[in-house]
Amino acid sequence: MLKAIKVRLYPTVEQVVFITKQLGCCRFVYNNCLAYRKNSYEQEHKSVSSVESIKHIVVLKQENEFLKEVHSKVLQQSVRDMNQAYDNFFRLHKGYPKFRSKHDNKQSCRFPKDAFIGIRGNRIDLIKSLKDIHFKCSRSDERYLNRNQDKISSLTLSK
């Protein structure tokens, strides 16, 4: 059975700065890869595969040094999310993927299972740079998370 648990994080000031960078870099990569797919189709009439768009992250990291501060798995996950939105457009006839805005209140990024370290009591460790973040949720959810942290498939960090 799949279960989603929403918790509230209480990060320190340094962690808030890093989380803001993380969200901004994920948005930057998402938008650039979407533009890359769109431009390659409009100019060359060539469809870009998911693997090619993930490889485009390497080019973006060479051009933009600030992307090297962010965990690579999180950036890859944002490209996978963009590819999923692109596939939904063609398969399920959903709307065309939109560029993410800096001023939107729905900023988020996903941490896949291999970018997640673990939970100790009411503290969560996401990646090396985001360790020991205090969180709050119900007592039963906290116990459930501590017992079943090996079953966590991904974490979504939203602002």
Architecture overview:
The chain has 159 residues and is α+β, with helices and mostly antiparallel strands. It is built from four helices and six strands, in the order βαααββββαβ. 47% of the residues lie in helices and 14% in strands. A four-stranded antiparallel sheet has the order 1-5-4-3, with helices on one face. A two-stranded antiparallel sheet has the order 2-6. The longest helix has 32 residues, at 13-44.
Task: Give the structure's gist in a few sentences.
The protein is α+β, with helices and mostly antiparallel strands and 159 residues long.
Keywords summarizing the entry:
single chain; 159 residues; alpha+beta; four-stranded antiparallel β-sheet; 6 strands; 47% helix; globular
Task: Indicate the topology.
Layout: E1 8-10, H1 13-44, H2 50-63, H3 72-91, E2 108-112, E3 118-120, E4 123-125, E5 133-136, H4 139-147, E6 154-158
Antiparallel strand pairs: 1-5, 2-6, 3-4, 4-5
Number of strands: 6
Average pLDDT confidence is 90
| Broad structural category | alpha+beta
Number of helices: 4
Helical amount: 40-55%
Helix and strand succession? EHHHEEEEHE
Kindly estimate the percentage of residues that lie in beta strands according to DSSP: 5-15%
Oligomer: single chain
Gap between N and C termini: 27 Å
Give the overall form: globular
Gyration radius, rounded: 17 Å
The residue ranges in which pLDDT falls below 50 over 5 or more consecutive positions are none
Largest sheet: 4 strands, antiparallel
Biggest sheet, strands in spatial order? 1-5-4-3
